[in-house]
């Protein structure tokens, strides 16, 4: 399992407005190879958008990050920060982290 953390400067809609505007994008993400789940993140005060993703493997996480970075840059986002982490499964399970299938 690999965890991908992504954030970027975002000046678009947030909250309910974001949920309505991006539902089709959210649904399309479900079809990404190797994706287990995504948690959407937003900070109106910091003007940041992003997400936390769990992928089955590093190749899937890297491929998604590359595609998503290109998509965001095409939408005018100048900088995308993405970090791929290993998941410590025993400790995560101790704290009820949603890593199992």
Structure explained in plain terms:
This is Monooxygenase. Keywords: Monooxygenase, Oxidoreductase. The chain is of the alpha+beta class and 101 residues long. The chain has one domain: 2-Layer Sandwich (Alpha-Beta Plaits). 37% of the residues lie in helices and 32% in strands. It has four helices and four strands; from the N terminus they run E-H-H-E-E-H-E-H. Strands 2-3-1-4 form a four-stranded antiparallel sheet, with helices on one face. A hairpin with a 4-residue loop joins strand 2 and strand 3. It is globular, with a radius of gyration of 14 Å.
Topology at a glance:
Layout: E1 2-9, H1 15-21, H2 23-29, E2 35-43, E3 48-55, H3 58-74, E4 80-86, H4 89-94
Antiparallel strand pairs: 1-3, 1-4, 2-3
How many DSSP E strands?
4
Strand content: 25-35%
Identify the CATH class.
Alpha Beta
- The third-level CATH topology is Alpha-Beta Plaits
Radius of gyration: 14 Å
Task: Detail the poorly predicted runs.
Answer: none
Protein name: Monooxygenase
GO molecular function: monooxygenase activity
Keywords: Monooxygenase, Oxidoreductase
What key attributes describe this structure?
Monooxygenase, alpha+beta, Alpha-Beta Plaits, 4-stranded antiparallel β-sheet
Outline:
The protein is α+β, with helices and mostly antiparallel strands and 101 residues long. The chain has 4 helices and 4 strands, in the order E-H-H-E-E-H-E-H. Strands 2-3-1-4 form a 4-stranded antiparallel β-sheet, covered by helices on one side.
């Amino acid at each position: 399992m690999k965890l991908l953390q992504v954030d970027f400067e975002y000046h678009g809609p947030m909250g309910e407005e974001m949920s309505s505007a991006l539902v089709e994008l959210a649904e399309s993400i479900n079809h990404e190879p190797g994706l287990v789940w995504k948690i959407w993140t937003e900070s109106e005060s910091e003007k940041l958008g992003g997400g936390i993703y769990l992928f089955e493997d590093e190749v899937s996480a890297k491929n998604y990050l590359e595609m998503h970075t290109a998509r965001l840059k095409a939408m005018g986002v100048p900088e995308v920060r993405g970090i791929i982490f290993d998941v410590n499964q025993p400790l995560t399970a101790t704290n009820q982290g949603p890593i199992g299938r």
